[in-house]
């Protein structure tokens, strides 16, 4: 298949150079059949490209027929508005089929049509167009689908057994589809929860995601940018976890979602981390392993973007990496995959010289990065994991002693970072307790310290300047506030401090009798509550029904529902955390088994002697 693509690309290039249009006379007659001059072309290109005449004739005829089809489709679209879509079916079908449709049908209707025409289970396929998952509820036109668009069909079933009974097959596929859709929804929910969480929450009880640089230290990022980056990296990790299991059909939608969220981040931010470059590689790799590179029109652009991003992050000659990590051996696996994919792209486009250059570069890197299993075993006897051993051996060019020292040093560095983080956490908890001792809630203390970078004096001022923080989460109901019974003694105390009866009573109701908070707030705002805390007149006459509502069955049911939602959120978050690897360099730990096989395959195509 790859060789045929290469030869067709070469023939197409020759036709362009010679300015030959096969769909026009004399190569196509009025009946749209091949003209006699085609035989001369067959002989000419067969000799030029060293291909046998029969294969040359078949491929030229395929190019001619496709050109006629496209021309007819273009004319038909102009007249009738009926678009022609190229449907790339799952790899077990291994073919491209044209489909004619208007662009006003919904994504669901298109999916149904494809499933019916090609004997696929509708609920077990996903449609990718323009690197986006098709929205079933919107029309094709609303989603930017155009005439001659490429439509990629992903089949989500895991089994290749075609001999199962119909009923069993349908049950399994429906169950699998439901599991996949439920999983994607849980992933989305879990990532959104984690993206919204802030680091001022207690990480021992409430997990959150942090962004770290190549040394493992946290990076300060504006909240909105951080949210987009957390979502992007979360979807990427989910996709990578599926890629490790070789579940490329399921992984691709996650990777495309990650790409969408990365595009919401600033260019400056993307230049500081290599994640975006790695994602571009993973997307192209997924399309390649699905045998659907034809559907990715900008594969070459994505690989060029990855290369530029690596250069910006690592330095033109990896000098930044060497400065930070002391070597760049681990990151070479990314360049191996980059060169391999670039070589494959050149080969499929008929550029044999460039293909040979890049695939040979990948082959040389593979030889350099191949790990001796005995050395991994020797390091494992010292108590190091296989992953640590592989990464360290690549960084140290296979030297076992240096690798052991590197792992030990890295473990100490990580332990030091953890100690520093624990010290920061202890200090933060002490500051939170200090503010709590002054009458402020834990939540108010956390938010204030976060917004003032841990400065206790500024945090105190921040709370006073943002009085809504003084209210508990369930204190925002003005009816409940006004309903609170204030003691005369408390009112007298505040009046003794110089505040009016009305302000004293209102402040005590808002703060549920807390004299300390009431007096501090009134003093800070000149004797009156700020507008955001003042009670509305409507809340002054609550009904008896409202008073007893806390004990009503409805409220109890609501609490139960809330607990259930909280459990579901916890499950969603835990599912995300399971897919986040413990080792920060997990994405560099490629076994290179797939790459080795593909390198050998393509080297045999371009007839380059293997070293």
Short description:
The protein is mainly α and 611 residues long. The chain has helices at 2-17, 37-49, 53-80, 107-117, 166-196, 223-244, 248-262, 267-270, 275-289, 299-314, 319-325, 332-348, 352-369, 373-381, 386-395, 400-437, 442-451, 456-465, 478-483, 488-496, 501-510, 515-524, 544-547, 553-579, 593-606, and strands at 83-88, 96-101, 125-129, 132-133, 150-155. The protein contains 25 helices and five strands.
Write up this protein.
- This protein has helices at residues 2-17, 37-49, 53-80, 107-117, 166-196, 223-244, 248-262, 267-270, 275-289, 299-314, 319-325, 332-348, 352-369, 373-381, 386-395, 400-437, 442-451, 456-465, 478-483, 488-496, 501-510, 515-524, 544-547, 553-579, 593-606, and strands at 83-88, 96-101, 125-129, 132-133, 150-155.
- With 611 residues, it is mainly α.
- A 5-stranded mixed β-sheet has the order 2-1-5-3-4, with helices on both faces.
- Strand 3 and strand 4 form a beta hairpin.
- Helix 1 (2-17) crosses helix 3 (53-80), helix 9 (275-289) runs antiparallel to helix 10 and helix 16 (400-437) packs across helix 17 (442-451).
- The longest helix is centred in the C-terminal third of the chain and has 38 residues, at 400-437.
Order of helices and strands: HHHEEHEEEHHHHHHHHHHHHHHHHHHHHH
Strand order of the main beta sheet, please?
2-1-5-3-4
Determine the mean pLDDT.
79
Number of strands: 5
Shape: flat
Q: Which segments are poorly predicted (pLDDT under 50) over 5 or more consecutive residues?
A: 158-167, 199-208, 538-563
Separation of the first and last Cα atoms: 25 Å
Rg, Å, rounded: 32 Å
Question: Roughly what percent helix?
Answer: 55-70%
Helix/strand class? mainly alpha
The tally of helices reads 25
SS strand fraction = under 5%
Q: How would a crystallographer describe the biggest sheet?
A: 5 strands, mixed
């Amino acid at each position: 298949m790859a060789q045929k693509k290469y030869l067709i690309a070469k023939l197409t290039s020759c036709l362009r150079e010679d300015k030959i249009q096969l769909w026009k006379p004399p190569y196509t007659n009025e009946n749209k059949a091949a003209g006699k001059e085609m035989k001369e072309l067959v002989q000419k290109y067969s000799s030029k490209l060293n291909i046998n005449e029969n294969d040359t004739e078949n491929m030229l005829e395929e190019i001619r027929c496709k050109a006629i089809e496209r021309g007819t489709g273009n004319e038909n679209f102009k007249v009738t508005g009926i678009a022609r879509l190229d449907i790339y079916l799952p790899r077990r079908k291994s073919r491209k089929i044209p489909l004619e449709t208007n662009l006003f049908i919904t994504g669901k209707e298109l999916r149904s049509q494809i499933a019916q025409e090609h004997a696929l289970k509708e609920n077990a396929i996903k449609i990718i167009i323009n690197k986006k998952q098709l929205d079933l509820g919107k029309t094709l036109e609303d989603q930017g689908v155009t005439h001659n668009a490429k439509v990629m069909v992903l089949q989500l079933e895991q089994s290749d057994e075609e001999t199962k009974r119909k009923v069993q097959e349908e049950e399994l596929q429906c169950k699998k589809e439901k599991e996949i859709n439920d999983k994607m929804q849980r992933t989305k929910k879990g990532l959104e929860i984690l993206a919204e969480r802030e680091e001022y929450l207690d990480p021992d009880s409430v997990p959150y995601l942090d962004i770290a640089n190549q040394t493992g230290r946290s990076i300060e990022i504006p909240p909105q940018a951080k949210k987009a980056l957390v979502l992007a990296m979360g979807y990427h990790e989910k996709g990578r976890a599926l890629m490790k299991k070789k579940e490329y059909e399921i992984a691709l939608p996650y990777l495309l979602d990650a790409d969408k969220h990365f595009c919401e981040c600033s260019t400056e931010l993307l230049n500081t981390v290599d994640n975006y470059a790695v994602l571009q590689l993973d997307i192209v790799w997924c399309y390649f392993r699905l045998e659907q590179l034809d559907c990715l029109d900008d594969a070459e652009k994505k690989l060029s973007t990855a290369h530029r991003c690596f250069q910006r992050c690592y330095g033109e000659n990896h000098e930044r990496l060497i400065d930070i990590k002391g070597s760049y051996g681990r990151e070479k696996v990314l360049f191996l995959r980059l060169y391999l994919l670039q070589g494959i792209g050149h080969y499929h486009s008929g550029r044999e010289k460039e293909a040979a250059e890049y695939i040979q570069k990948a082959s040389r890197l593979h030889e350099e990065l191949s790990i001796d299993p005995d050395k991994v075993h020797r390091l494992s006897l010292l108590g190091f994991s296989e992953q640590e051993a592989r990464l360290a051996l690549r960084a140290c060019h296979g030297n076992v002693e240096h690798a052991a020292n590197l792992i030990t040093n890295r473990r100490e560095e990580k332990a030091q970072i953890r100690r520093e983080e624990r010290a920061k956490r202890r200090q933060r908890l002490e500051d939170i307790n200090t503010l709590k001792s002054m009458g402020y809630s834990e939540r108010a203390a956390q938010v204030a310290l976060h917004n003032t970078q841990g400065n206790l004096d500024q945090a105190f001022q921040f709370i006073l300047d943002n009085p809504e923080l003084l209210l508990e989460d369930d204190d925002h109901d003005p009816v409940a506030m006004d309903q609170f019974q204030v003691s005369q003694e408390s009112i007298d105390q505040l009046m003794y401090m110089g505040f009016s009866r009305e302000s004293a009573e209102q402040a005590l109701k808002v703060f549920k009798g807390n004299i300390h908070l009431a007096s501090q707030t009134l003093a800070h705002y000149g004797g009156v509550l700020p507008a955001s805390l003042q009670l509305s007149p409507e809340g002054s006459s609550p009904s008896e029904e409202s008073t007893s509502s806390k004990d009503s069955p409805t409220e109890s049911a609501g609490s139960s529902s809330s607990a259930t939602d909280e459990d579901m959120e916890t499950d969603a978050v835990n599912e995300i955390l399971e897919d986040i690897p413990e080792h920060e360099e997990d994405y560099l730990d490629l076994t290179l088994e797939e790459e080795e096989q593909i390198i050998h395959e393509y080297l045999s195509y371009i007839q380059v002697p293997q070293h």
